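Changelog-adjacent note: as of this version, every example in the card shows the full chain rather than a window. The one below runs 228 residues end to end.
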Amino acid sequence: MRITYLEHSGYMAEEGDRALVFDYYKGTLPELLRQKKVYVFASHVHPDHFTKRIFEWESRYPNIHYILSDDIKARDAEGRCTYIGPCQTAELDEMEIRTLRSTDEGVAFLVKLKDKRIYHGGDLNWWHWEEESKAYNEMMRRKYQHEISKIEGEAIDAAFLPLDPRQEEQYAWGFDYFMRHTRTKHAFPMHMWGQYDICDKLLGDPVSEPYREAVMCVEGPQQVFSVL
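Full-length structure tokens:
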């Protein structure tokens, strides 16, 4: 499987004749063969996760389909859109798509493609903010842990997970909890707001010791990873 980091929370995963694009909103989409089946996922309507420009790709790729969180209001794109809400399952072209409920807006995706499982968290994260109340932060902890309990112990080949420097000392709480409660082979940080040194921070943090070898160090847009 070939993974390309696009920008912010945008990733593309290529497996065989399929390309799965997650949460694109800016940057360069690598050129794909026209015969590829392209699936474009958007986890929620926030402008750093979704742009209507994705519909312009229809002219480039005749075999394109959009899988959109149901909080996104967009045209049907001539039957090319599948809308999905939290805690739902959909079957599409021999793919199984499951969703979790975000702790912000929209959904997180868990996609089963042949023998591969790919997770994209969207804005599902353990959002802890020092300026918020104790009650708010406790609610966020409970909600995040509840959602991750639904995939407790699952084997995941590639997971795209928020690692947000704005959370300061709590920057890795969600990432760490996910890694300790799933069997993830390759973990790709996202939502870093261009501060890519946070990957090095995580790799040097004692908290990552149990899963450090699974963390893929992202250095910037268009970086390509080949993973089994």
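Structural remarks: The chain has one domain: 2-226.
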